[in-house]
Design brief:
Blueprint (H helix, E strand, L loop, with lengths): L2 H16 L3 H11 L5 H10 L2 H9 L8 H20 L3 H12 L7 H9 L18 H18 L16 H15 L81 E3 L11 H6 L15 H12 L25 E7 L4 E6 L6 E6 L4 E5 L4 E6 L11 H6 L1 H4 L9 E6 L5 E6 L3 E7 L5 E8 L5 E7 L6 E6 L3 E6 L5 E6 L5 E9 L2 E8 L3 E6 L9 E2 L5 E6 L6 E6 L5 E7 L4 E6 L12 E4 L3 E6 L2 E6 L5 E5 L11 E3 L5 E5 L4 E6 L1 H11 L7 H4 L7 E4 L2 E4 L51 E3 L5 E5 L9 E6 L5 E6 L3 E6 L18 E3 L7 E2 L13 E5 L5 E6 L3 E5 L5 E5 L6 E6 L6 E6 L4 E5 L4 E6 L11 E2 L4 E2 L3 E2 L4 E2 L19 E5 L6 E5 L2 E5 L5 E6 L8 E6 L5 E6 L4 E5 L5 E5 L14 E6 L7 E5 L4 E6 L18 E4 L30 H4 L4 H12 L4 E7 ...
Helix pairs in contact: 1-2, 2-4, 3-4, 3-8, 5-6, 5-8, 21-22
Length: 1311
């Protein structure tokens, strides 16, 4: 069949689908064999329509076509057979066995015999391999997953799983165009042609022998290809709806005319020089339904009904949208539903946005005006900015007046982040605040935020912010309470447009473009939706959103489908898809609570799924199905209407929690990606840890902009030669288009690293600073950082507080605490000290001190044996005192959600829950035997240790700490506790041990002092990201441990930071920086305070010589493993643990098979499982091994649609790794592989056979078919004598290597 005939079939399929001829659609799909409708196939399998399933498949493949097809049919018939046995329908089972399954006996007789034996069992689940068979529904779902993989891998289905991209109603458009041409060529064209049939060509009959007006006086429907012309839509009653060109029809209906009731235009504050399409202005002036102009009529009752619906604005399904006929092959399993991270924010999260390129970098804005950027993989907070007006004098007078409260140095709790968003390339971000202003930052790959623009944008709140490119120039779009939308130049901050016309505060904006038309949708809190072009002609749309209140709009990732989600004042939520061409609702999704508790938020992903937060859950929909697909409660702890945000690939989902935190949910790909990050515990620099899924940076208008030119469909490598001295270690600085033909050079120094903990004995090996102190020295008993990270607060044994503040300067532009910048010992101008009340009957040095800081750093609560005092941190004044002894307070902890509630541990072993506001003890908890030395809240577990349930303060569990092995005497001394960021693990620190407990108070692992750290432990604390534990020892040493395994990563000797070490000088207390996971402070017994950080060369503790050697006794129910580092090419990545062959294959049975049978079994076993199974002759393996030892690296392109992406191959037998070259250039040896291969030599001697197993690490990067081709291509380059010359040239003669030779060898085009 010719290409045009094939395309006509696709157009007919679209037409049939639009006309709801469903059975005919699938019949044509099957008979033509051009398009395999995966959604229809899934539905038939789930329904158990086996005859229809095989009939539909028969249009595309037969049993005997190939091994993929054979396995597809076998799985279907096996399932049908098992279901018959499960129904105890033996006659039917026998019939299936004889008629359907016997055909497979000739291929695998043993398997057929095993299937036949199932008839002899009372329950086929007695067969070991079928013991986990569940019910019919779950079995069909499991089978479907495998069938989809087999179909996608089957070459017979190539290019048949997706429809070509073409606009809706394309066949109708072509007919319209044909009719237009026929009328243009008509000898007697009439103003109102009457077309009654399509069976014959149109011709206007003459009236009384006179000619009608010439054709150019009668403009006709549809896009007549007439240069420079402007084409009017069909008459309002035409069956075939208008399709306007060159502007896309997706905006035609929505923006056909300015609304006459809205006289306000767009006021251009400056001449932006925006370029509009030549025909767009005229196009937009045409009325949607010309009142009486000429038009062709081809009417039916359906077209009249359609027009009635459109005029009434009824939310019916009115047309087929784009290419939605083709169901996406995504599965519900692709949704991120597994909780993998819990991040604490400390304040209510108002907005989130994932970085567009760095898939694990999350931007967060809170209700106290803070914004932070976190790497969710490593749990590292990269940046934190508290709310501050950069230049109050530049702001409007109303804002200056409203900010008086702020200028009095009291945090204004009403300044909230309404929206924060990344720019399109991630080099810039914007923050919209609840009062007047927006702030724009530039962002570097190293995690640094720099102030760029502060704009006094709106009167009142700024409700939304977004980025757009009206004429290839980056602009900022904002909306606010002043009922306007404004457009700003992103470079200089100049206002370009003000759009007026809304009659209520504007709630959200959604900039978008279709081909060469740029526009903005906006919604107001009165439910009005308007649309604007970048001109002065006012809004083009005035529609009502469902619910008539707070609504947001968003496009699918490919920009073809428009959705909105809103909640009415009564709590009714509406999630809908719009038919853009008509401005009507196409479908409404069901599944919301009748009365939502808050404004429901939503997001889209993978061009296939919708998600919304409702009813303490995240609910998911398939875009093509109005019924809810599935939901998750995120393991509990979600608010009534959680906020949510997908990353770009849809592998991660950030969800807000009711305890001011964020949960990260992941699908299988997301979990793999995060595991890759976890294996990089020994990264050499922060830049590496942040570069997941990024490309080398280039310079843009606003600073570094990630190079996205290497996407799979557009990757083109040049063959320019690079000097031999170039290594992959510095390729990130080279234009990515020149890097394909460079031989990667690996720094072999990593190969010889000693994998022992680093022992720091000199101050030159790290950064340390002793803080200046002019006050009399006294032992530091409590130490903490302020939540902003700008200051350190210490409490001495003499009841005096000391506060050090860092100032902004050239060496410390952020003003954050640093070991390289000396802070100021701060005191108010009156020189007052912040001193606690003391117990006259008991010296302060003998009293137990305690301290706690409020979340906004405004107040500190403290006690030193006397009354509990509440201090103002700015003035050092005592706000109030309470709870005079006895008993004295010994520990303080603020409630995580209410600063007015404090848990106070007492000397008499009780815990008092005190409300500061009403000066009242709400509850007294009893259950301990001795004074309280540590308290910790868990927000997600809702508990306070002992363990108490904080809702009703009911004691849940208690457990004594176990002494070290061999110690008989009971433990004495203080015990301190701290919850991990995941809120489920608990750090317990006693002088005899560091231990990690779970929520049930079961000890998971413990570390006991010995060897170089043999002194008692004085203090310990988690790092802010929860990855490390900092511990002090009574001999002055400091230990830094891996939080997961408790392995020692680094030891700091007393001589490294104490000028004259004495046995009595040691760190009494340790404090961890709130946002820098590698900085900590020490409060010393001699009254000194030290701040410590790794050296500039290491960036992380222990990264100079990573710590995997235990220097204590590890005790754990699950012993920790140290990743193997014996492969020099994979020093930054722990390869997937080699799976023993006996866990994959029954080795004893395999010994009885011939080499050919064993190879087939191996191949078939891995088919469609996300793994690749191939085999090779032993002599070929030995040749591969020999050549790989001499030439370990190569590059191979993989074809991706219209371009190719290049893979970097690293070989050290029996391993072979395949990594994206762009990732390797960005991360060097820290780059995670996309595919790993392992060679099994167990049958090399007996059967002359080596089995090879490939594991795809990122299924989003490589398909099964691509991975198998890649492995076979790698073998061909090493085993083919001619091709191996290219490998030798790449490794030994870099100057002679040209990438085009590889392309020619693979018969790929040189682009």
């Amino acid at each position: 069949m010719s290409s045009l005939s094939r395309e006509l079939v696709f157009l007919i399929l679209q037409f049939l689908d639009e006309e709801k001829f469903k059975e005919t659609v699938h019949k044509l799909e099957q008979e033509s064999g051009f398009f395999f409708n995966m959604k229809y196939f899934e539905d038939q399998v789930q329904a158990g329509e086996w005859d229809e399933v095989e009939r539909y498949l028969s249009g595309f493949t037969k049993v005997e076509d190939n091994r993929y097809s054979m396995k597809i049919f076998f799985e279907i018939r096996k399932q049908k057979y098992l279901e018959a046995l499960d129904r105890d329908d033996r006659p039917k089972a026998v019939e299936i066995l004889v008629k359907d399954l016997k055909v497979f006996a000739s291929f695998n007789e043993d398997l057929f015999k095993e299937i036949t034996q199932l008839l002899t069992l009372d329950n086929f689940r007695q067969n070991e391999q079928l013991s986990k068979y569940g019910d019919t529904k779950s079995a069909r779902s499991i089978m479907l997953v495998e069938l989809k993989k087999l179909i996608e891998a089957n070459p017979l289905f190539r290019d048949k799983l997706t429809l070509p991209a073409f606009k809706a109603s394309r066949l109708r458009t072509l007919i319209n165009q044909s009719l237009n041409w026929q009328h243009q060529l008509c000898k007697n064209p009439r103003p109102n042609p009457d077309i009654k049939t399509l069976f014959t060509d149109h011709s206007c009959a003459s009236s009384n022998g006179t000619r009608g007006p010439p054709p150019n006086n009668a403009p006709l429907a549809g896009p007549v290809p007439k240069p420079g012309g402007v084409f009017h839509p069909l008459g309002g009653h035409g069956l075939f709806q208008p399709v306007v060109s060159p502007p896309p029809n997706a905006i035609a209906g929505w923006m056909s005319s300015p609304n006459p009731s809205m006289p306000h235009g767009a006021v251009a504050a400056a001449s932006p020089g925006l370029i509009q399409a030549s025909s767009s202005a005229a196009f937009l002036k045409h009325p949607r339904t010309p009142p009486g102009g000429p038009g062709m009529e081809y009417q039916t009752a359906d077209s009249e009904h359609l027009l009635k619906r459109l005029r009434a604005g009824q939310p019916d399904e009115v047309s087929f949208s784009g290419s939605t006929h083709l169901p996406n092959i995504c599965s519900p399993d692709d949704l991120p539903k597994t909780v993998v991270r819990s991040l604490s924010q400390g304040s209510n999260v108002m907005s989130m946005d994932f970085h567009p390129l760095q898939q694990t970098v999350l931007l967060v804005g809170t209700n106290v005006g803070d914004i932070s950027i976190s790497e969710v993989g490593s749990r590292e907070r990269l940046a934190l900015k508290t709310f501050k007006v950069w230049d109050i004098s530049a702001c409007s007078m109303p804002f200056q007046v409203s900010s008086i409260a702020y200028t009095t140095l009291v945090k204004d709790a009403t300044i909230s982040v309404n929206r924060c968003a990344w720019g399109p390339d991630g080099s810039i971000l914007g923050v919209a605040f609840s009062k007047h202003i927006v702030q724009i930052y530039t962002y570097s790959p190293a995690g640094e935020l720099r102030q760029h623009l502060e704009i006094d944008a709106h009167v009142g709140g700024v409700n939304d912010i977004a980025f757009a490119h009206p004429n290839k120039q980056l602009c900022i779009v904002t909306c606010g309470d002043d009922k306007t939308i404004k457009v700003w130049d992103a470079v200089a901050g100049r206002k370009q447009y003000t759009f007026e016309g809304h009659e209520a505060p504007v709630y959200s904006v959604c900039p978008h473009y279709k081909e060469n038309i740029q526009f903005i949708f906006s919604t107001a809190i009165d439910g009005k939706i308007k649309a604007w072009l970048y001109d002065s002609l006012g809004s083009r749309v005035d529609y009502d959103a469902p619910g008539l209140w707070c609504t947001t709009m968003a496009y699918s990732a490919d920009g073809t489908r428009l959705f909105s989600c809103g909640t009415s004042k009564e709590g009714e939520s509406h999630l809908v898809e719009w038919n853009e061409s008509e401005g009507a609702i196409k479908r409404t999704y069901s599944g919301f609570r009748k009365r939502s508790l808050g404004v429901v938020q939503f997001d889209t992903t993978r061009n296939h799924f919708l998600a919304a937060g409702d009813e303490f859950q995240i609910k998911f929909w398939d875009m093509d199905n109005t019924n809810m697909l599935t939901y998750t409660d995120g393991d509990g702890g979600l608010p009534a209407s959680p906020r949510l945000r997908f990353n770009k690939e849809g592998s991660l989902l950030a969800v807000t929690t009711s305890d001011n935190g964020i949960k990260i949910l992941a699908n299988f790909d997301g979990q793999r990606m995060l595991r890759m990050l976890e294996t990089r515990a020994f990264d050499g620099s922060r830049g590496h840890s942040e570069a997941v899924n990024t490309k080398p940076a280039i310079t843009g208008a606003l600073g570094p902009i990630a190079n996205v030119s290497a996407s799979a469909s557009h990757v083109v490598e040049r063959t320019d030669r690079i000097p031999q001295s170039m290594s992959l270690g510095n390729l990130a600085t080279v234009d990515s288009s020149r890097a394909a033909d460079v031989k990667p050079r690996i720094d072999t120094t990593e190969k010889n690293k000693s994998w022992k903990f680093s022992d720091i004995t000199d101050s030159s090996q790290f950064k340390t600073l002793k803080l200046p102190d002019s006050l009399p020295p006294s032992k530091i008993v409590r130490l903490l950082y302020t939540n902003s990270g700008l200051a350190v607060l210490a409490l001495a044994s003499n009841a005096v507080h000391k506060l050090w503040k860092w100032q902004r300067n050239d060496r410390n532009p952020t003003g954050k605490s640093s070991a390289t910048s000396v802070p100021q010992l701060w005191q108010p101008s009156n020189g007052a000290l912040m001193s606690n009340d003391v117990n006259e009957a008991k010296p302060a040095d003998d009293s137990v001190a305690c301290i706690a800081l409020s979340k906004n750093d405004s107040y500190v609560m403290s006690a030193s044996g006397g009354k509990v005092s509440l201090f103002n941190m700015m003035t050092f004044k005592v706000m109030t005192t309470f709870m005079p002894p006895p008993p004295a307070a010994t520990y303080l902890a603020f409630h995580p959600q209410d600063n007015n509630i404090i848990a106070i541990g007492m000397e008499d072993s009780t815990i008092q829950i005190y409300n500061v506001r009403v000066d009242e003890v709400k509850t007294k908890l009893k259950g301990h035997q001795k004074r309280i030395s540590g308290l910790a809240f868990s927000q997600s577990l809702n508990i306070l240790l002992c363990v108490w349930i904080i809702d009703g303060w009911e004691k849940k569990k208690s457990r004594p700490i176990q002494p070290p092995p061999g110690q008989q005497t009971p433990l004495v001394g203080e015990t301190k506790v701290q919850f991990h960021n995941n809120q489920s693990h608990l750090l317990v620190v006693h002088e005899s041990q560091i231990a990690v407990y779970d929520a049930q108070l079961e000890c998971l692992r413990a570390w006991y002092p010995r060897d170089s750290l043999s002194a008692p432990i004085s203090s310990g604390i988690y790092s802010c990201d929860g990855l490390l534990i900092f511990a002090g020892f009574c001999d002055g040493a400091v230990g830094i441990f891996d939080a997961e395994s408790l392995s020692l990563r680094c030891r700091i000797a007393p001589s490294a930071y104490i000028s004259s070490p004495a046995s009595s000088t040691f760190p009494v207390v340790i404090a961890a920086h709130p946002s820098d996971g590698n900085q900590f402070g020490l409060g010393m017994s001699d009254g000194a305070v030290h701040v410590m950080e790794p050296s500039d060369g290491d960036a992380k503790w222990g990264s100079g010589s990573a710590a995997s050697q235990e220097n204590g006794i590890a005790s754990s129910s699950q012993p920790s493993e140290t990743p193997s580092r014996n492969l020099s090419f994979a020093t930054g990545f722990a390869p997937l643990k080699a799976k023993p062959l006996e866990t994959i294959l029954d080795v004893e049975r395999a010994k009885k098979k011939s080499p050919e049978e064993l190879a087939d079994i191996w191949d078939d076993f891995h088919l469609g499982r996300g793994h690749i199974g191939i085999s090779m002759k032993a002599k070929l393996y030995h040749l591969l091994e020999q050549r790989a030892s001499d030439c370990r690296y190569f590059v191979i392109p993989v074809w991706k649609g219209s371009g190719y992406t290049t893979m970097f191959v690293q070989v050290e037998m029996p391993h072979m790794l395949f990594t994206g070259l762009e990732d390797y250039k960005a991360r060097g040896t820290q780059a995670a592989p996309y595919l790993t291969a392992l060679y099994y030599k167990e049958f090399a001697e007996s059967k002359d056979l080596v089995l090879v197993r490939g594991d795809i690490v990122f299924t989003s990067k490589l398909s099964d078919e691509e991975a198998k081709w890649l492995m076979e291509a790698a073998h061909s380059f090493y085993l083919n004598d001619v091709r191996y010359k290219l490998v030798e040239r790449f490794n030994k003669q870099t100057r002679e290597f040209e990438f085009k030779d590889v392309l020619q060898a693979l018969e790929m085009p040189i682009l």
